[in-house]
Structures are given as structure tokens and as C-alpha cells.
Design goal:
Layout lengths: L8 E4 L4 E5 L11 E4 L5 E4 L8 H4 L8 E4 L5 H4 L7 E5 L3 H5 L14 H6 L35 E3 L4 E3 L4 E6 L8 E5 L4 E5 L16 H12 L5 E4 L7 H15 L1
Parallel strand pairs: 4-5, 5-6, 6-7, 11-12
Antiparallel strand pairs: 1-2, 2-3, 3-4, 8-9, 9-10, 10-11
Helix pairs in contact: 5-6
The chain binds zinc ion (ZN) (2 copies).
Length: about 260
């Protein structure tokens, strides 16, 4: 496999928000990494698979305390979490991050068999098919990939605020995809960072820690939100009309 020239890409999204992503990672595990600039503190939402340093990548953006939030602890969202000094997540995710034993793989064969079957429609591939199309550096060993365990420096719950000085994000508990999935809602701008609770792609509700009945309630709640823009855990951002469509499709499928 070729060696990637650079590992991350980024795009300015307006509103002081920068999107970063890992173009050489398979779309199934290519999470959106969100950086939101505040006056006193900045916010980082999710951190990628962790095969290259996100902290080095965003060094030019860091000029004040940075609050890193994990929307949930699936490996494509927490790979670089350990690199940051302030690490927030929901209490239902935190214990599993401290001693990371969740499945985490960069080849199809590393996925549990049952999951492999349910993801076969998403181009997961067979056997040792890699989930990268380039390596982050020479000598990188796909089979040795692990998520670095780390502890939360703070726990957040429904209704808590993440305060950047001039911007304030409210924590929404959005369980179903995983038990402690959270979103961050900035009412003033109508912006929702939704993690994997909702994004514009197939919603995964059959993972080992998913719960469809609980997920349905979350989707009903999201459907009622007066959002201007949803920045999801995967796939392109979207507005309120598309949010309603995505929620309705899920409710029709599972409701
Ligand atoms: Zn997830
Ligand atoms: Zn994800």
C-alpha cells in the first residue's frame, strides 16, 4: 500500500467551525472531526481512528484550552482522544474507554462475524481487506492496531453545558446507537453536533452496544428539534428538512 502524503483533510464550514477527516480511511469508519472556535476555550468533537496524530494536525488551530468531547467511544471516534488534556464524555461510555476492549479493526476480518454480515452491504470487504487505502507512515502494521485507553477528565449528562466563553453548547443524551451517545446543541446558531445518533447515511443500530427501542425514542426527539444545521458523526452536514426525512425513514423502518 502507498504511504499517504498527509493524513487529514480539513474544510472551513463557517461559524468558526472546521471539519477535519481522514480521507484514506474506509467511509464506514471515517468519522467527522469537528473543531469549533470559542473566545475563551475551543471545542473538539471526536478524534478519528488514531493512526496519525490529530494533535499535531491541528497544532495551528490550538491557541487556548481545548475541550475534547467524545460523542461516544466507538473506535473511529476516539482514536486520538488520549492526546488531549480535557476529555469529556457521558458516564455510560467512560468505563469502556478506560480499559478499551471494544472491537477496533482496520481489516474486515477484525470485525465480529455477525457484524461483518450486517455490514456486508457497505463495502466492508472480505478477509484481510484493509479499511485504509494508504498507510499513515512507512512500516505501519494494520494488524497491530489498537485504541489507546484513556480516562475521561469529566463526565457530562443531559442538560450540562460546554461553555466556550462566547458560545454555549448543551449536552443532549441521544442513546440507541450506543448507550452514552451524546450530541452538542448550540441554540443560538441552531447547530447540532449529533455524533452517530443521526447522520446522512445508514444508521447503525445493530452494533453490540446498540438498542433499537431506545434509538427510536432518540430519533423521535431529534425529529422535533428546530435545527438549522446538523453536523453528524459521518457524511455531509444537512438542515432541518433533511433531518425530518432521515428520521421519518428510520421510524418507517423500525417504528
Ligand atoms: Zn458509532
Ligand atoms: Zn461512527
Amino acid at each position: 500500500m502507498k504511504i499517504a502524503g498527509r493524513w487529514f483533510e480539513r474544510r472551513e464550514m463557517g461559524d468558526g467551525i472546521t471539519l477535519l477527516w481522514e480521507p484514506h480511511v474506509h467511509p464506514l469508519i471515517r468519522c467527522n472531526i469537528w473543531f469549533a472556535r470559542g473566545r475563551d476555550r475551543d471545542l473538539l468533537v471526536d478524534t478519528g481512528v488514531g493512526v496519525a496524530s490529530l494533535r499535531n494536525e491541528i497544532a495551528d488551530l490550538i491557541d487556548k484550552p481545548l475541550i475534547a468531547v467524545a460523542t461516544h467511544i466507538h473506535y473511529d471516534h476516539v482514536g486520538c482522544l488520549h492526546e488531549f488534556d480535557i476529555r469529556l464524555m457521558h458516564r455510560l461510555e467512560a468505563p469502556r474507554m478506560e480499559d478499551y476492549r471494544e472491537f477496533a479493526a482496520l481489516t474486515a476480518s477484525g470485525f465480529p462475524a455477525e457484524l461483518r454480515a450486517s455490514l456486508s452491504g457497505y463495502g466492508l470487504g472480505e478477509g484481510d481487506a484493509p479499511l485504509l487505502d494508504a498507510l499513515p507512515h512507512k512500516g505501519f502494521d494494520l494488524a497491530a492496531y489498537r485504541v489507546v485507553s484513556t480516562h475521561a477528565t469529566g463526565l457530562v449528562e443531559e442538560g450540562d453545558a460546554v461553555d466556550l466563553g462566547d458560545r454555549r453548547f448543551s449536552v443532549f443524551h441521544l442513546p440507541g446507537h450506543s448507550p452514552g451517545s451524546i450530541g452538542l446543541w448550540e441554540e443560538a446558531s441552531g447547530t447540532l453536533f449529533s455524533g452517530d445518533a443521526v447522520y446522512d447515511g445508514p444508521l447503525l443500530d445493530e452494533l453490540p452496544d446498540s438498542d433499537i427501542a431506545v434509538y427510536l425514542a432518540t430519533i423521535r426527539r431529534l425529529r422535533g428539534m428546530k435545527v438549522r444545521v446538523v453536523h453528524g458523526g459521518h457524511d455531509p452536514s444537512f438542515g432541518r428538512d433533511r433531518l425530518v426525512e432521515i428520521c421519518d425513514a428510520y421510524l418507517a423502518l423500525r417504528g
